[in-house]
Amino acid sequence: MAAKGEKDFSGLKAIIVTLLFLVVFFVIIGRLNGERKEERSKELKTEIEQLMSYDMYGNYPRTPRDVAKLHNRYFELFYGNALSEEELTTLNQKVRWLYSSELLMYNSEDTNLQMLKDNIAAVNEAGYEYRSCELPEASQVVYYTQDGVEMATLEVKIVFGVEKGMEYMYMKYVMVKENDQWKIHVWGRSETMDAE
Q: Which pTM value belongs to this model?
């Protein structure tokens, strides 16, 4: 209790201490959030850099499943990030290494790039966000020979984030073996219906 003639500032001191605590608390939280965003940005940049410089000569995927996995790493970048024109062009050139000679013959690089840009715009406009892909087990890849050519088929489950939650799409890959490397010969939306 304050003596006669003195003012009691204990309430004011408590308010000032509380305000200082809140300011320090929010500064710390802001810095932590900034560090997390910066870390996520670095991870994304690292993934872009890794895929832009991916060594298709020395590190080409060995199995059809590995080809589909790498293909979807590229598509996760395409459909989930704002890429520069240079990044998009370079990444498109890299992903074309995964395509069969026949698929490349029917899709010039310029046509392929324009189709990719159109698809990215459509996916973004629809509000879809590529989240992940689920690869089949190695035992679920179907290998066969057609006209003396080794081929394989598999389905990949793509998970998209949408406003109302998650949506799923199955992509079917048909691959052909060319020069001892599995190449994407045909790929597109599967008729498999998602029961989830």
A: 0.73
pLDDT of residue 168: 86
Residues whose CB is less than 8 angstroms from the CB of residue 103 and which lie 6 or more positions away in sequence, other chains included: 183, 184, 185, 186
The partner residues of 99 in beta bridges, in order of sequence, read 184
Q: How far apart are CA 184 and CA 64, in angstroms?
A: 8
- Beta bridge partners of residue 188, listed in sequence order: 172
**pLDDT tens-place string over residues 58-72:** 999 999 999 999 999
Residues paired with 98 in a beta bridge: none
Q: Is 186 exposed, middle or buried (0-12, 13-18, 19+ CB in 10 A)?
A: middle
| Main-chain phi, psi angles of 124, to 5 degrees | -65, -40
Q: What is the mean pLDDT of residues 99-128?
A: 91
Q: Which of 115, 118, 77 is nearest to 94 (CA)?
A: 77
Residue 95 CB contacts under 8 Å (≥ 6 apart), including other chains = 71, 74, 75
CA distance 19 to 60: 58
| 151 burial via Cβ count (<10 Å: 0-12, 13-18, 19+) | middle
pLDDT of 23: 65
Give residue 175's identity as a one-letter amino acid code: M
